[in-house]
Write a structure and sequence with these properties.
alpha+beta, Arc Repressor Mutant, subunit A, SH3 type barrels, Alpha-Beta Plaits, 3 domains, 6-stranded mixed beta sheet, 4-stranded antiparallel beta sheet, about 35% helix, elongated
Length: about 325
């Protein structure tokens, strides 16, 4: 797997920092690979500039990570984990920053990067997006559940299965799952887990806010490749639905607002006579798309596909009927 090596090497750095010193056998046992692979990993990390060295105690060779790894940042007191977390979380921070501040945030991280060697920067840039941000217009970050997020990130990095009790929205009851977490994603103001569920043989998405309890198991799993953007084909947090060609006409009164924003990377905008717009998207026909369209009310009209146009018309008819009833009925 393309990302397995860098995830393992990152785990080695974290283990060495927390344990002070470990043997190659210790590291092999923790990561589930051979001692030969660990030796190659240590050599690669040293070549990247990480301050690793070995020393002999009581006849055994131990590997150690220098605790003050970045002398140019001595005044900050950053540990390796803190500095590295800041560096590779810049995508999350830039995404959450308001537009006027994105350039300043980027410059701040460039200064932080200057304290790293080129090899270190190259290594950290290869770290997979264990925690990914997907910006949504007007969204605000949710308050994270620290303990659960820490457990999920550790399970993701170390490829460990998780036993989870979950408050299922679809079935309206609590269910027990064993999951293989691939990624923790921030999207639409909430945190989600993208995980493979062996019982169902498929990837599913779980909202962290609906996790009632979880525990990290000793059992490991071998993750499959996951796209860089876990929800690339959706305006929301849906996956597994194939994208379709969607065409929506917007009235002149809302055209400027629509034109000024990027709703999806696939969007194409065609100007129409009289100031209206036609927006074409290649996205999944899911609830996120339908709720987005409905939010524009009579200022948006689905041109294709016909099935989606009928769904939107049905929703408006249901709303009309609802508003015709007295409150409480």
């Amino acid at each position: 797997m393309r990302n397995a090596e860098v995830i393992r090497q990152w785990s080695i750095l974290r283990d060495l920092e927390s344990s002070r010193r470990l043997t190659i056998d210790d590291l092999a046992g923790r990561t589930g690979v051979t001692t030969r692979t660990i030796r190659r990993d240590l050599e690669a990390l040293q070549a990247a500039g990480f301050p690793l060295f070995d020393e002999v105690h009581d006849g055994r060779k131990y590997w150690t990570l220098e605790q003050r790894a970045f002398r140019r940042l001595d005044d900050t007191g950053f540990t390796l984990a803190e500095l590295s977390a800041l560096y590779f979380s810049r995508t999350l921070v830039e995404c959450l920053a308001s537009t006027p501040f994105q350039r300043d945030v980027r410059r701040a991280f460039e200064k932080l990067a200057a304290a790293l060697t080129p090899g270190m920067r190259q290594f950290l840039d290869r770290l997979p997006l264990v925690m990914q941000a997907k910006a949504e217009p007007g969204s605000q970050p949710a308050t994270p559940r620290g303990k659960e997020i820490s457990q999920l990130l550790d399970a993701t990095l170390n490829h460990r299965r998780v036993a989870m009790r979950y408050d299922s929205f679809s079935s309206n009851r609590q269910k027990d799952y064993v999951i293989e977490p691939y990624r923790v994603v921030f999207a639409q103001g909430g945190l989600y887990i993208v995980a493979f569920v062996p019982e169902y043989g498929e990837l599913r998405t779980f909202a962290v806010d609906r996790v009632r309890s979880l525990s990290v198991m000793e059992e490991r799993f071998e993750p499959a490749e996951l796209a860089e953007d876990a929800f690339a084909d959706s305006l929301g947090v849906n996956q597994g639905t194939l994208p379709e060609r969607i065409e929506i006409a917007f009235e002149p009164g809302i055209a400027r607002y629509v034109r000024e924003r990027v709703w999806h990377s696939s969007q194409e905008i065609a100007e129409q006579p009289g100031g209206s717009l036609v927006v074409t998207l290649h996205v999944a026909n899911d609830w996120a798309l339908r709720s987005w369209i409905l939010g524009f009310g009579p200022l948006a009209r689905v041109l294709s596909p016909p099935g989606l146009a009928q769904q939107i018309a049905d929703e408006f008819e249901r709303a009309r009927l609802l508003y015709s009833l007295p409150f409480g009925e």
